[in-house]
Design goal:
InterPro entries: NTF2-like_dom_sf, SnoaL-like. This protein is of the alpha+beta class. The protein has one domain: Nuclear Transport Factor 2, Chain: A, CATH 3.10.450. The protein contains four helices and six strands; from the N terminus they run H-H-E-E-H-E-E-E-E-H. A six-stranded mixed beta sheet has the order 2-1-6-5-4-3.
């Protein structure tokens, strides 16, 4: 999976493992207290429940709980995970079924994280926002 390792990739890799296992304590353990999460386009938060900006660990927990409760993950592949200094980048492909509609949301994705002292301080996830909206329509 990883193209290159750095200290910045370690918490990102642990985040993927914890989220895949449904381990909220594991997720929170790699997030800084003052984490900023940006997911999708906040303009579409009324259509895609996890879209928006989240500040702090409590809000981050809301983000990850909201994401997990609104999708049934059929596939989530991390194809690349690279880091340099305090930055980590990951990319891959996902396929989620949306229980509320029964529709499938499939997209390539990218993630940019900033890391300090072994914790993720900034998390920004990119995906096909039009496809996500369609899956909830």
């Amino acid at each position: 999976m990883p193209t290159s390792y750095s200290d910045a990739t370690v918490p990102v890799h642990r985040l993927f493992e914890a989220f895949g296992a449904g381990n909220m304590d594991g997720i929170l353990s790699v997030l800084a207290e003052n984490i900023t999460i940006k997911a999708g386009n906040p303009e579409y938060a009324s259509k895609v429940p996890w879209y928006g900006t989240y500040q702090g660990q409590s809000s981050a927990q809301d983000f990850f709980t909201g994401l997990a409760s609104n999708v049934e993950t059929e596939a989530f592949a991390v194809e690349d995970l690279v880091g340099d200094g305090s930055l980590a980048f990951a990319s891959g492909h996902l396929r989620h079924r949306i229980p509320a509609t029964g529709r499938v949301f499939e997209s390539d994705w990218a993630l940019r994280c900033e890391v300090a002292d072994g914790k993720i301080t900034h998390y920004q996830f990119f995906e096909d926002t039009a496809a996500a909206q369609d899956a909830f329509a």
